[in-house]
Specification:
The complex is a heterodimer. By secondary structure, chain A is of the alpha+beta class. Chain A has 15 helices and 20 strands. By secondary structure, chain B is an alpha+beta fold. Classes of the chains: A alpha+beta, B alpha+beta.
Chain lengths: 442, 100
């Protein structure tokens, strides 16, 4: 089977790799998708919500399946500011979000990626290369084979597989990306975070009652402030079918400097009185962790392509949290599709050099992925400012406590309460600076 | 809800090749660097699986068995002590997520 050359080898069956494979299969390309885990998704961790409509483009009417790969659709969004005792939330729920294609679905990657791989296999079976394109698991790629600085295949152990092109979709720990020289050998911790998560199981009825879920509706909740115990980052809670995903992301450099451990921060978060009430009666069924990039462009690879090779998904650090949502899986999906479409063009022209592959970068630049990453860099920087994950949540919660306290004494005007909270936790000058930055960045 | 300690949390993780005694470590750590020049020894607290520990004499030790392949140590170590890789499915102990 392996003497022949593939049109493309994709490294990594995460969302980017699977989206690329789906696109290649539909375009009658002969490819090999290699995954180091025992099945697609077995090594993958996310928060996580897959935002946007690209899933519906990839798997039309995915919502019709009784047991599709996804958990719940989001119709309820909540952003919570936290101090040590209180939470103050901005909460939005709307039946506007009840209709497919949903604007976001919660996924658990071990299930979702495996399901999506099944869909890719269906497309392979329908293609001209049903017997010559493969999803191969349990194989670790040791090296991208280069000839004259052009990618020509991969090596795993003693075996080599050859191809006209390689898509690297290996995820954020991008060793192969570094090996081909698209990123430095050592990437400093400055813009990297560790995500840490527990999956907590409930009786499904208890879960649905507690979070006011109806059918397959779901909630996403992000947390700023005490959730990360003074470390750069934030917390999250997403509802699955009969579990919740509860966790946080914490800046690696900041943890190093503040001598904090992610599992201790997670315990602090879980010990918060409001979170305690939220997770009461649940049983932890999995603990996981994974590095995630911050969405700061300064950590992106030097280039997204070179002769014979493209970078998709988090291998290229395509991820962003600008305050509205943590996006990454949608970027992975779109970049995988665009990368594969470029490979299809390369085959038509029989030119897999950077001359053709640079069109991937151009397509990505025109897409919402790079437009958002470029437009919201200021917001990314602002969110990683200590004022945003410490002073502001404290101030908001302090104001909330004053505002909602009724003690049968003459009540102060809320403007005065706000002035007191600001004085205690920040200053007008700081807030003006944040306000101006915020207005500009969003 | 009671908080779980780390051994209980790691007890919920599924590892492959769990019973194999001859496992080739996928991460190699030059603890001589940790124990001579490193000013912070941060891996002993930032690793979510506590693969890096510090003994009573302040010496760093590393064991790969609990590794959940998150990558934190690769970024956190700025001293060049961590040679990070993924486990080979055949010869390394590796994580398989049930939920992910």
């Amino acid at each position: 089977m392996m003497d022949e050359k593939f049109d493309c080898i994709i490294v990594g069956a995460g969302i980017a790799g699977l989206a690329a494979a789906m696109t290649l299969a539909r375009n009658n390309m002969k490819f090999l998708l290699i995954e180091k885990g025992e099945f697609a998704g077995s090594k993958n961790v996310s928060g996580g919500v897959l935002w946007g409509h690209d899933l519906a483009k990839l798997v039309p009417e995915y919502w019709e399946e009784e047991d599709g790969g996804w958990e719940r659709f989001i119709n309820h969004r909540r952003l919570t500011f936290m101090d040590d005792q209180s939470t103050f939330s901005v909460d939005f729920k709307s039946s506007h979000f009840n209709e497919p294609p949903y604007s976001g679905v919660v996924v658990l990657r071990s299930k979702f990626d495996r399901w999506l791989a099944g869909k890719v296999q269906e497309e392979i079976d329908k293609s001209d290369y049903a017997m010559e394109s493969f999803i191969a698991t349990n194989i670790k790629v040791d090296e991208i084979l280069m000839e004259d600085d052009k990618a020509v295949g991969i090596r795993t152990g003693e075996e080599e597989f050859h191809a006209n092109s390689v898509i690297i979709s290996e995820g954020v720990n991008n060793l192969l990306t570094r090996q081909v020289g698209l990123q430095d050998d050592y990437v400093p911790a400055d813009h990297m975070l560790t995500g840490i998560k527990e999956v907590i199981r409930f009786d499904q009825k208890v879960l649905e009652d507690r979070f006011q879920l109806n059918g397959l509706s779901g909630m996403s909740n992000e947390f700023v402030g005490y959730a990360t115990d003074g470390v750069e980052g934030g917390g999250f809670l997403y509802t699955n079918r009969d579990t919740i995903s509860l966790g946080l992301v914490a800046g690696i450099k900041d943890m190093r400097e503040k001598q904090k451990s992610p599992q201790d921060i997670l315990n602090t978060f879980k010990s918060h009185p409001v979170i305690q009430d939220t997770i009461k009666g649940g049983e932890v069924v999995e603990y996981s962790a994974h590095v995630v990039s911050s969405g700061d462009k300064r950590v992106m690879p030097k280039e997204l392509y070179k002769d014979g090779v493209l970078l998709c998904g988090e291998a290229a650090n395509l991820l962003m949290n600008a305050g509205k949502a943590i996006q990454g899986m949608d970027y992975a999906m779109r970049s995988g599709i665009l990368g594969a479409e470029t490979i299809v063009k390369a085959k038509e022209r029989d030119d897999y050099s950077s001359k053709t592959l640079k069109e991937y970068k151009q397509a990505l630049a025109k897409s919402y992925v790079m437009k958002d990453i470029n437009n919201f860099q200021d917001a990314v920087h602002m969110l990683h400012n200590p004022k945003m994950f410490k002073d502001v949540p404290n101030l908001i919660c302090d104001f909330g406590r004053k505002f909602f306290t009724i003690d049968n004494e003459p009540t102060k005007k809320s403007r005065k309460m706000m002035a007191e909270s600001i004085k205690e936790h920040s200053s007008y000058w700081d807030l003006i600076k944040i306000g101006l930055k915020g207005a500009k960045s969003l | 809800m009671k908080l779980l300690d780390l051994p209980k949390r790691l007890g919920l993780v599924s590892y492959r090749n769990q019973a194999k005694s001859e496992i080739k470590p996928h991460i190699e750590v030059d603890t001589d660097i940790c124990n001579s020049t490193c000013p912070h020894k941060c891996t002993t607290y930032v690793c979510p699986a506590n693969c890096y520990t510090m003994d009573d004499n302040g010496q760093v030790h590393f064991q790969v068995e609990d590794c959940i392949e998150c990558g934190t140590c690769m970024y956190a170590c700025d001293q060049g002590a961590v040679d990070w890789n993924y486990p080979d499915p055949e010869i390394g102990r590796g994580v398989t997520w049930n939920f992910g």
